[in-house]
Amino acid sequence: MAKPLIVNVVELLRWPGSKKEVSANIDVADFEFADARIIDTPIAIDLRLESLSTSIEVVGTATLSWAGDCRRCLAPVTSDLVVDFDEMYQREIIDPDAYAIENDQINLLPMVRENILLAIPIGPLCREDCPGFCPHCGLDLSVSTCDCDNSVSDPRWAGLESLKGILPDESV
Ligand SMILES: [Zn+2]
Ligand SMILES: [Zn+2]
């Protein structure tokens, strides 16, 4: 259990407007992500808690590294990611998106975990204009060019193309 992410908020709740900073480097293992994309290097957490009398607002960032495969050419992609947070903890949950304050404590870990998983790109690109593979010969177009004519539509669809106008649009 990542102790630095469990914060006693008795004092904060007592003094609306009061703030508390939480900064920690947390081992990836503590999050139990079960997600191979997240690189096993400590995640830097920087959060600011602010008391709003019955709730606590948490804003800040988590900085981590992730790895994946380019969705076009399958080359390995690694990148750093800064995830922004702006979340609410409440004693009595009024906002359905809020997290619970339990026994005068808040556990930041599940909130950080959730936001990180949502922020990792699902279909990353090795670079914005990655050309991927040639649809005809399968050559990696980032490495070299082929003689295939990629300007015409894929021949597999040419037959369908000629049916356009004959069949109703939905079936094409
Ligand atoms: Zn690529
Ligand atoms: Zn080709």
TrEMBL record:
Cited PANTHER family: LARGE RIBOSOMAL RNA SUBUNIT ACCUMULATION PROTEIN YCED HOMOLOG 1, CHLOROPLASTIC
Protein name: Unannotated protein
Species annotation: freshwater metagenome
